[in-house]
Every structure is written in C-alpha cells, then in structure tokens.
Amino acid sequence: MKKFYFFFLILLPNLLLAENAASVSPDDALNRLREGNERFIAGRNIHPHLDKDRRIETSKDGQKPFATILGCSDSRVPVEQIFDQGVGDLFVVKVAGNVADTDEIGTIEYGTEHLGTSLLVVLGHTKCGAVTAVVTDAKLHGSLPGLVDNIKPAFDKAKHEHPNLVGKELVPSTIKANAFQGIADIISHSTIIAKLLKQGKLKIVAAQYDIETGEIEWLGEHPNQKALIEQAKDPVHGENAEAHETSFFSIPNLIYMLMFLFICAIVVGIILFVAARKVKYATSNED
Ligand SMILES: [Zn+2]
C-alpha cells in the first residue's frame, strides 16, 4: 500500500500539469497571443510573469506553457516580447527559416503531446534571410544547403501561383508559403501531431510577423489539413496515423485469438477427459 501512495505522489504533479495545460483551449491560447501582440504594437506591454515569484513557481511546479511556437532565429523576432508573454508561457522552437525537420518536429511533439499545449503557431516573418537565400539562389556553404532544402517546396509553390513575379518579387509569397510548408512537414512526418489534430486536442495555424510594424498577420490553418492528417507517416516505423489504432481484425490480434482458442480447446479437452475418467470410475465402482 505504501508503494501505491508513493507511486501516486510521483504521478500527481504530472496529472495536475496535464490538467492545467489542457484547461487552455486552442482558441483561448490564440486570443492570448492576439491580445499580447496588440499590446506590443501599441507599446503597452505589461511584461507578465517575469518576476521572482514566477521563476520560483515554474521551478517548483514545472512548466505549463499554453502555446508552442515554431519561429525563425532572426534576432528581430523575439517571440516572447512580440506576444508580450513571460517565463513559462510559450514553448518556443527557433530555427533559421522556421523550417520543420526531424529535431524541430521532435521538439514540437514534446511541447504539444507531453506539455499539452493546445495551439501550435508556425511563425514566418517579413524579410526572412533564409527564404531570400532560396529565392535568389544564393551560394551557401557548410550545413546551410541542408537547412534551406526545407524551404524549396514553398518557393516552387510561390512560383507556380505567381507566374508573373520574378526574382526578389517572390520573397513575400514564398515566406507565406513557407509557413504553410512548415505545417505540412510537421503533420505529414508526425503521427503524434496528426492524432492530436484528429482528436481536436490541437490547433495549428500559420502566421507572419512584420519586423517593421510589429504586427502579426494570422494566416489560419493549412487548407489541406484533413488530407495531411490521413497521409501522416511515422518517420521511424513508416506507419500512418491509422496504424496506431490497431484494428480488432489485425494479423497480430488474429494470431492471439487463434492461440487463445487453441489453449481453450486443450483446457476443455483436459476437463472432459478428467470428467469422463471420473464417470467411468464411478460407474465401475457401482458395478
Ligand atoms: Zn528568418
């Protein structure tokens, strides 16, 4: 019994944490970000959750951020400040070009599934250097070519949708397409995220931050979200989201069922054999 209480005590903070994070709905989380950005633009930041008490509280009780943000590493996009949030409010992934590759997706899975944030924002920004490098076909060295590879499909899409634009004119539309590309990459490579979306526990939106005005332009959900969820594949096992919800008639289940029936048949056989022997013994005694 002591062990049970000990187990419960360990589990309790996690249960409370999950409860707390889940209490902020996706729309409430979005409203908090909207309001914070409005304060930032108006120069009326209230700088919440930056005091000593907040540090002690989050250190003792753990983090309960209400939104996960995938943004660009650009120093002109300080995520907490532009949404007027403080310590323990946002789970932020920053990477050049706000791309979603394996490490970013893993971090996002931690923020959404483990910490329970109900909103994920893929945040692009105006005059993004990483996107501009792709559009202008800049010569890149080191590990950068591998990073900007993630942006190329967005550039192709922008070119296709705006055949009249050339060169740098395509930067703004590629930046927006790249935010949606991030969403597509996240969903199609994460059965965890696809499942959370399907269950309505998570909302993913694209947005663009204007580095001059400070304004966030909310771009909404991915137009093909439903199809992306259906196509989602686990990068390790190559399974789609449906495969995790094992069917009752799946091959492993049928094998277990056959084994169970076989064992039942043997047990019934033994019982019948023993019973028959007893009856035979009893009748021979009567004789
Ligand atoms: Zn950028």
How would you describe this protein?
The protein is α/β, with parallel strands linked by helices. It has two domains: 2-244, Beta-carbonic Anhydrase, Chain A; 246-287. It has 13 helices and five strands. It has helices at 2-22, 26-41, 52-61, 79-82, 102-114, 129-135, 144-148, 152-161, 171-188, 191-198, 225-231, 241-244, 251-286; strands at residues 67-71, 90-94, 119-125, 203-209, 216-220. The protein has a five-stranded mixed beta sheet with strand order 2-1-3-4-5, sandwiched between helices. α8 packs across α9 (171-188). It is elongated. The termini are far apart. Bound molecules: zinc ion (ZN). Residues 72, 74, 97, 125, 128-130 line the site of zinc ion.
